[in-house]
Design goal:
It is a multi-pass membrane protein. Keywords: Cell membrane, Membrane, Transmembrane, Transmembrane helix. This protein is mainly α. It contains 16 helices and no strands. The relative contact order is 0.19.
């Protein structure tokens, strides 16, 4: 007897992944043509433009599964590979004073942002995403925290949009304010690394400052990576708090204390620190990590739709502005305390 199988109704991720990959290619090309532009930031903007271009509902629906996979799974692999750019020796080379400043920025930044968000009346999950995203490493940190708490999709895409807006504004503002304050170029670089949200935004700012003195970009990025190194312990703490609050996810699962991709991040840090990887491997991993994060940023940007943000209100925006200012002030006081002028 001939059995006829009905076609699977399970949505395919292929169309969305292909569009996200194409967006990443365009982002890399645009960043190559535009001096100082970051593929990650360009990808987010392209994603936002694509999502709000008036695509037919059928097309948007076909793209959603793949975009969702890119913004979640590819992002987590990219974050894990980011650990290969971190070596314990680099952090030690900063000096304990600078490393302590980076840690204080993260801890005080999160604490102050949570407190101000509570005063504003922002919900716990939304203010946690903003606090961690703005204090550690932007969209990637927000997505990592999203993996262990019961946040809504709108809260994550709102955080991503705010990271883009306020972090990008910091790119010209930090060199401008540093000049007004008379900061030495290296001190300005340390401030940029300690204050700005995204790694890509720090690179853009450090590149601008590098024109005034050598070594500024390296200092900025190293301090930023010191903040990134705290992503795993912060997410672990958030996971414990979420479990104690009974914040089970809507899919019925209990949030993990430490997600697998963060264990991968720590494993990558250990591999890099052990010195067992050939520099060619590290460079190749950096290329793969950059590609994955760019694809993921396009997908995250594609989640920033007008209808999603319409009901956000002014409170998350006010919290984002306050968090940006708070982290910048803590970072400035910190680098000043190291004797920088």
């Amino acid at each position: 007897m001939l059995t006829v199988h009905a076609p699977s109704s399970r949505p395919t991720v292929v169309p969305g992944l292909l569009v996200a990959a194409a967006g990443a290619v365009v982002a890399f090309a645009a960043a190559h043509l535009i001096p100082g532009a970051s593929p990650l930031l360009v990808a987010i903007v392209l994603g936002v433009v694509t999502a709000n271009a008036g695509l037919p509902a059928r097309v948007a629906g076909a793209l959603e599964p793949g975009l969702g996979a890119a913004s979640k799974h590819l992002l987590r692999v990219g974050v894990a590979l980011l650990g290969l750019q971190l070596a314990v020796s680099d952090l030690v080379g900063l000096g304990w004073g600078t490393a302590l400043v980076a840690a204080i920025v993260v801890v005080a930044g999160i604490g102050g942002s949570l407190a101000f968000g509570a005063w504003l009346g922002v919900g716990w999950t939304q203010r946690l995403l903003i606090a961690c995203g703005f204090s550690i490493c932007g969209a990637a940190a927000a997505a990592a925290v999203d993996g262990v708490i019961d946040s809504r999709k709108r809260e994550l895409v709102t955080t991503v949009a705010l990271v883009v807006v306020f972090g990008t504004a910091m790119i010209p503002l930090v060199p401008l304010v540093a000049g007004m304050l008379g900061l030495a170029p290296e001190t300005a670089g340390l401030w940029a690394g300690a204050a700005i949200h995204e790694v890509a935004q720090v690179v853009a700012t450090g590149t601008a400052l590098e024109a005034t003195a050598g070594g500024v970009l390296a200092a900025a990025v190293t301090v930023k990576l010191a903040r990134v190194a705290l992503l795993a312990p912060v997410v672990a703490v958030v996971g414990v708090v979420a479990r104690r609050r009974g914040e089970g996810r809507r899919d019925g699962r209990t949030p993990p204390i430490v997600p697998i991709f963060l264990l991968g991040f720590l494993a990558c840090v250990a591999l890099r620190s052990a010195g067992v990887l050939d520099p060619v491997v590290v460079d190749a991993a950096r290329t793969v990590q950059s590609a994955l994060l760019t694809v993921a940023m396009f997908a995250l940007g594609a989640g920033v739709r007008r209808e999603v943000l319409r009901g956000v209100g002014w409170r998350p925006i006010a919290l984002a502005a306050a968090a940006t200012l708070w982290v910048a002030v803590i970072a400035l006081v910190g680098v000043w305390s190291l004797g920088g002028r």
